[in-house]
Amino acid sequence: MSSPTWFSAAREGYASKGIGSRLSVGHRPALLVVDLAVGFTDDVWAPGCDLDGVVERTAELVRLARTNGHPVIFTTIAFAPDALEGHVWLTKMPGLRCMTEGSPAVAIDPRLGRLDSEPLIVKRAASAFAGTGLASLLATLRVDTLVVTGATTSGCIRATVVDACSAGYPTLVPESCVGDRHEGPHEANLFDIDSKYADVVAFDRARELFDVTVAKERA
Amino acid sequence: MSSPTWFSAAREGYASKGIGSRLSVGHRPALLVVDLAVGFTDDVWAPGCDLDGVVERTAELVRLARTNGHPVIFTTIAFAPDALEGHVWLTKMPGLRCMTEGSPAVAIDPRLGRLDSEPLIVKRAASAFAGTGLASLLATLRVDTLVVTGATTSGCIRATVVDACSAGYPTLVPESCVGDRHEGPHEANLFDIDSKYADVVAFDRARELFDVTVAKERA
Amino acid sequence: MSSPTWFSAAREGYASKGIGSRLSVGHRPALLVVDLAVGFTDDVWAPGCDLDGVVERTAELVRLARTNGHPVIFTTIAFAPDALEGHVWLTKMPGLRCMTEGSPAVAIDPRLGRLDSEPLIVKRAASAFAGTGLASLLATLRVDTLVVTGATTSGCIRATVVDACSAGYPTLVPESCVGDRHEGPHEANLFDIDSKYADVVAFDRARELFDVTVAKERA
Amino acid sequence: MSSPTWFSAAREGYASKGIGSRLSVGHRPALLVVDLAVGFTDDVWAPGCDLDGVVERTAELVRLARTNGHPVIFTTIAFAPDALEGHVWLTKMPGLRCMTEGSPAVAIDPRLGRLDSEPLIVKRAASAFAGTGLASLLATLRVDTLVVTGATTSGCIRATVVDACSAGYPTLVPESCVGDRHEGPHEANLFDIDSKYADVVAFDRARELFDVTVAKERA
């Protein structure tokens, strides 16, 4: 990532305080694709922005993981007509109101080719873990590592990665697979994520993790 | 807050997309003091930094809230000897290992004068909600609004505020009552918090909320 | 409730050990109608049984609460096509497989006249709190008391009531508003609920709670 | 288990409705010992009852699991001095008030020989999952199966097993390793657990699960 002046000073300060170490990953990764729904990937919708590169690189990981038998899990945002669950968030971000059950905005971007058999977590909060069955799903799938992609870096990616850390999952964030509306928050959040919660990695590092077929015991 | 070049452009872009609106608060606020433990407020400990101003302003709110009968809730970090709960976080931030049960680092800073009768949430994750009884406590206390203070802005404050939003609580963050090791992450996280999850406010706005005695029905 | 021989001995033993006391309730109750979906109320579906009386009495409370401005929240069970979330439960209870997204079995019984504006919690677990946004919804609605009705007493009612207790909500269970497939588990679970987690009450006790209009500050 | 008249009729009815099937277990079990604290195992304390057999059989499993490298996790109940977290439960069961931080009642029964390196979950609710880091701990340990023992069958065992099912963990309950104050609730809850959430099994079935050394990949 490019570097605002404060990044290098902060990273150095962190290193001296035991902040910013690396994780080890396991052998049963899942790919978690966060909010690459039409309302985010097509900027005719209020929450949307240019995520073409993010969708393209994520689609590569989706195909690879699927082919090799690794779980691929999608999330979207879809508020109920009453809009009560998620009320505080919607008050701060009224632009999200288009993400309502039944709207075309909540559908996963067709370029990702999601299969009906692939889990779709419907959320009404920033984190994919908040008020959803994601933690239960990961236990059922015996996942031991997460690769998180999607949007936005400063919103649902950050929130999901913090919760993944709390939930006990070592997590990788391939830098070219996450995106945001503005570079500033994108970079500042990658800095925090990489310092405190997960490893921000190059695309190939995430690719390698899915480039093996799943051990038989899994099935 | 001071403004990196990208803040104003991003804020303008957000406004055009329905991001960054204001919340309304209720009449039963609680003060949540996050991680103002000795290990954070005294920089002889690895996680520590200069938080004297934060402690001083927070102490004012603590006294006011306590006097007027509003709940004051403290959090600290205290890992078990096995260090299994919180394992991923400790791997990223080994500097937190000093925050272990029984260490003087986990005690709340004495300048805050915490009373034994005031709840202390012990956590092993960034968010005060993760793996704790905080949500249950807030329901029991019939709280409808949170004021969050403490440290660090880019760590436990951010994580707690995101979860407060998901948990259904309108939240205020008085700017002078939160602090961090470096200005860059401090400011970038205040920007995100104020744009998406809670209202970053002046000290007096938070002060006013506690400057009324609690309605009788509460007791 | 009718009484197997062990009930009175156990109740007496409990009383001597400080088990089975009464709760006080608040002034902002919500009515939580658990799983009165067609798949449960119509016994052409595997999970179904005779719940006509339960539906009728619950419908009375629904109308009263709605008229007086108290929140009415419904739950149903609806598994995704992948059936991964809820996998362990479905393995124990394969009869629940008919409760799949899009099936007529998951619709709320029409005799309850649920309005589109009334929240519907979709769950894949026994408890209405597990993997759902119910706790967040209750905070948003500033609820301080729950009345739980529906089915089954030994399944989703028990699980929901235990979690309501943990979540900090005093809870009433009007006996004629909950039902089950067999009398044995129904009675044994009412016994446990009343001893440890909530107050099992007569219909009129629950009715009174909703028979007042909502205080203005709520709106 | 012995059989009240309704058990066989209900079990038959359940079988015809797809209720009461068997689970398959994995290869990475953990032993979860629920609330075998002095306040429960010694009846000088209000919540206590005769659990000598339960402690003895559980101790066998503890030793075996420990020797073979399987995780052993203990829980206890310990309310804070403010007694706010757990308030509703304590109101229903004031007899639990002796389970307060620092009291000898909260210590794990010494006959189980818990090691300092073995995780201890401190809870203020019936379920070991409610308001605790247990789910995170299980993910960190890469556990795929639970064996739940302890007390009481109709209280914390039932609540924990229901949540284990929701959390995605196939669970075994060895019948001789769980106990209660009265036979009626003990048997009725084993019936429910075995019908809907977990497999109630003979001691030897649980023993076998731990009677293998842990696969190398685990360490």
Gyration radius of chain A, in Å: 17 Å
User: CATH homologous superfamily of chain A?
Assistant: Isochorismatase-like
Following the backbone from N to C, one meets helices and strands of chain A in this order, namely HEHHEHEHEHEEHEH
Major interchain interface with per-chain residue totals: C-D, 58 and 57 residues
Topology:
Four copies of one chain form a homotetramer.
Chain A: H1 5-16, E1 29-34, H2 38-41, H3 52-67, E2 72-77, H4 87-92, E3 120-123, H5 134-140, E4 145-151, H6 153-166, E5 171-174, E6 178-179, H7 183-196, E7 199-201, H8 203-210
Parallel strand pairs in A: 1-2, 1-4, 2-3, 4-5, 4-6, 5-7
Helix pairs in contact in A: 3-8, 6-7
Structure description:
Chain A is α/β, with parallel strands linked by helices and 219 residues long. The first copy, chain A, has one domain: Isochorismatase-like (Rossmann fold, 3-Layer(aba) Sandwich), CATH 3.40.50.850. In chain A, 37% of the residues lie in helices and 15% in strands. The first copy, chain A, contains eight helices and seven strands. In chain A, strands 1, 2, 3, 4, 5, 6 and 7 form a seven-stranded parallel beta sheet that branches. In chain A, β4, α6 and β5 form a beta-alpha-beta unit. In chain A, α3 packs parallel to α8. The longest helix of chain A is centred in the first third of the chain and has 16 residues. The model of chain A has no long low-confidence stretch (mean pLDDT 95). Chains C and D meet through α1, α4, α6 and α7 of C and α1, α4, α6 and α7 of D.
Keywords:
8 helices, 219 residues, homotetramer, seven-stranded parallel β-sheet, 37% helix, globular, Rossmann fold, 7 strands, alpha/beta
